[in-house]
Amino acid sequence: NVAFVVGARPNFMKVAPLIAEIGRRADCGIRPFLVHTGQHYDAVMSDSVIRDLGMPEPKEFLGVGGGTHGRQTARIMEGFEEVCERRRPDAIVVVGDVNSTLACALVGAKMRIPVAHVEAGLRSYDRDMPEEVNRVVTDQIADLLLTPSEDAEANLLREGVPSSRIRFVGNLMIDSLLLALARVRNETAPFAARAKEAGLPYVAVTLHRPGNVDDLQDLLPILDGLDRVARDCAVVFPVHPRTAARLEAAGRRSAGEGPAEGRLTPAIHLVPPMSYLPFVLLLRDATLVLTDSGGVQEETTVLGVPCATLRPNTERPVTIDVGTNEIVARAPEAIEEAARRALAGSWKKGGVPRYWDGAS
Q: Predicted confidence band at 261 (pLDDT cuts at 50, 70, 90)?
């Protein structure tokens, strides 16, 4: 009887293939049930992802919502502890690095329930990122650490984690990506078709990290860079709920029904959040992706699409060492230069890391 915890959209992509594989192995003896903490809840960001991935509906929904890190973590712990007291899971599986990951791992440790951490060992070595704190603490208290890349195992060993607790299993998020690609292989992203009709390439953008969007002093230089990129191509920007209010404060229109019908134009097109399958198409057909998302760094590496990460560091260095990712300064001229290289076809050609193959 195993609890699988999800709290934010990327968590679903990491849990879905694991639950599906358990379902294919009827004799494995594992009975999974899904717990959705509601840390990030939006119909497009959560419900549609469950449908797109063919996942079972959550058996438990904690509905914790937003709030400060401390309050949110405490509410998740309180709600999940009640679930564990009632359902008595034999083990808990947490994924990624969000507050739900840490909170539910802490509950498991205190209730003496074995905890497995999927995507263990990733490190940015930047404690200003709340996710880094979540990763480090979760890895110290989890019983089984399932790593997505070889550098993650090395990080854990340096921190004194016994090798007996570590298993290098590959990247489950890529299993979901490859399944999605198979489902949409004969489809074209609506933006790609319209960009082709207009004779324009397009750049896809995702931004949601507090360090990029919470303070206008940080956000405005990025928007200036996007304005420069939009002189030469269409910029398609699905707006994360966290980012929408800040864009309005910066004098940008809110994301509504998306760009007007017809041809795309050299401009920034703000669009609502996308469900998973359309978003995969958006990434697949882009000339460049500008992002601060860890998952998007991984997806673009497998897709072979140039990726410029607008952060000072990344916990996924394999996407730089092996893949198509580069760290790009959050300055207008740096963003413009990255786009020019991608549009000119001079971006580096990456490869795919070991076990990022859909068969891990």
A: low
**Calpha distance 11→66 (Å, rounded):** 17
Question: In the numeric block, which tokens belong to residue 11?
Answer: 């968590």
Query: What residue has token string 């198509």?
Result: 324
2, 284, 293: which is closest to 144 by C-alpha? 2
Q: Note the pLDDT tens digit of each residue in 135-181.
A: 999 999 999 999 999 999 999 999 999 999 999 999 999 999 999 99
Angstrom distance (rounded) from CA 317 to CA 333: 24
Structure letter (DSSP) for residue 173: H
Strand order from edge to edge, sheet including 325-327: 268-271, 234-238, 202-206, 288-291, 307-309, 325-327
Q: List, as one string, the DSSP characters of 220-249.
A: HHHHHHHHHHTTTSEEEEEPPHHHHHHHHH
pLDDT tier at 256 (50, 70, 90 boundaries)?
very low
Instruction: Please give the Cα distance from 61 to 40 (Å, whole number).
Output: 12
**Among all chains, which residue has been given the structure tokens 């996308």?**
274
Q: Range with the lowest mean pLDDT among 122-136, 153-167, 228-242, 244-258?
A: 244-258
Catalytic site residue from 36, 40, 117, 208: 208
Is position 269 annotated as part of the catalytic site? no
Contact of 356 with 150, CB cutoff 8 Å: no
Instruction: Please say if the pLDDT value at position 191 is more than 90.
Output: no
Say how far apart CA 156 and CA 93 lie, in whole Å. Answer: 18
Give CA–CA dist 226/352, Å, rounded: 28
Percentages of the chain per state (helix, strand, coil), in multiples of 5: 45, 15, 40
pLDDT at residue 343 is higher than 60: yes
Contact in structure between 70 and 45 (CB atoms under 8 Å): no
